[in-house]
Amino acid sequence: MFVELVQVTTDDGVRLDGMLQAADEEVAGSALPLGIDAVVMVHGTGGNFYASTMMELLAECLRKLGAATLRVNTRGHDGISTAVTRTGGIRQGAAYEVVDDCRHDLAAWLDLAQARGYRSVALLGHSLGAVKSIYALAQAGSGSDDTASGRPRSVTRLIVLSPPRLSYSYFAASPRAEEFLAMCRQAEELVAAGRDESLVEISFPLPYAVTARGYLDKYGPAERYNVLKHLPTISCPTLVTFGSIEVQTNVAFRGMPEAVEALPAAADGASRSLALIAGADHFYSGTRAELAARVESWLRKQSQTTRSE
Q: Which backbone phi and psi does 228 adopt, to 5 degrees?
């Protein structure tokens, strides 16, 4: 399978890398069985475009069904990395990212997809990549000339796999509230002392190193990235999936299927579907064939709905 390594530079000057693979030849150019011609795939916290075996399997399945796949880095790729910018290298990665910057990253990748001739694109994100995908599309409804109906024109489907609940109020009322609030206080003290970029080793909601500023940005009282606030604003058909094991064992996912089901419908009537994969953990270990089948079935259903309208 031919792989093209691709690069984009965001509108704020950060260079990002990715991997583009065309649809399998026997289905390329025919009527689109899934109703899309490409999928932009976004990694989670500390991930990257090439390492996820789950994304690799999904990408292979999607290409066999007629969709090109563009697996991409955001500036939050890997734990700590160096980003090339117009003014030189800067520290980046999950430790230093501000999630809001994903708007620039995803816009650049969607522009590349459009420039390559893809007109009907699904945006697919996993974990924090799912949060970024929801957030970026929600923010796109702010009146940009590059949007239509509140999203980039090429994005016609949204698939979000295990978006965590990034909610200060929910974590502060959880069984691990004391641990969470202590970490927030530590981050707040560092920021107040002018040490915004100091790294903090956190254990909640997941263990990794992050700057004090980044921790408060992601998990603080503003709840900027609470997907339950943003999902009702999404104006394209959306599939949300969770694994039954992660819902039972991880506070960031507990109650999320029920919370998503209880959300109001999108203002413009865009459909929203929920799939709970039995026996699946956060990385869908041992259940990836089932996940791929659910994604395929949903995409086919959306394609049939569109043709019948």
A: -65, -25
**What is the Cα–Cα distance from 159 to 250, expressed in whole angstroms?**
21
Query: For the chain, how big is the Rg over CA atoms in Å?
Result: 19
Query: Where along the chain do its domains lie?
Result: 4-165+225-308, 170-217
Contact, 193 vs 156, CB < 8 A?
no
256-259: long-range contacts, CB 8 A cutoff, minimum separation 24: 256/163, 256/164, 256/165, 259/165, 259/228
Q: 4-165+225-308: what fold? A: Rossmann fold (3.40.50)
Res 292: pLDDT: 98
pLDDT digits (tens, 9 = 90+) for 220-276: 999 999 999 999 999 999 999 999 999 999 999 999 999 999 999 987 889 999 999
Pairs from 220-224 (Cβ < 8 Å, separation ≥ 24)? 220/168, 220/184, 220/187, 221/168, 221/169, 222/168, 223/166, 223/167, 223/168, 223/169, 224/99, 224/100, 224/135
What confidence tens digit (pLDDT) does each residue in 278-308 have?
A: 999 999 999 999 999 999 999 999 988 765 5
